[in-house]
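Exercise 4. Each item below gives a protein and its sequence. For each, produce the structure-token representation.

Item: 2-keto-4-pentenoate hydratase (Bacillus songklensis).
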Amino acid sequence: MQVTDERMVYWANHLKKAEENHKGVEPLTSIDQEMTVETAYQIQLVNIQRKIDLGQRIAGKKIGLTSLAMQNLLGVNEPDYGHLLDDMIVENGGHLSYKKVLQPKVEAEIAKKKVKSLV
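Answer:
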């Protein structure tokens, strides 16, 4: 499917509005049967760029669905990835307001904090 920039912005706006309203939406691939993985990642990048333009920083990357069991459970055949922004960081002992999340769940993750060199 060849998606125009206008269509990509339309879907990016749809997801941005859902995030702002803290409302879940149907997956775009269910709404638009011709949506490709490549297009979905391009739509993701539209919203990431918007956040960067507003002053947020990319603090890391996230790879999900790396286990075959989870892929099978969710009906996908490959891992996915996304960007972690600086406003997503919760330090040890920190607090996360339930108002900031849509479907609160706990998933243990191993992360390495990047330390600035003193040299």
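Check: The mean pLDDT is 86.
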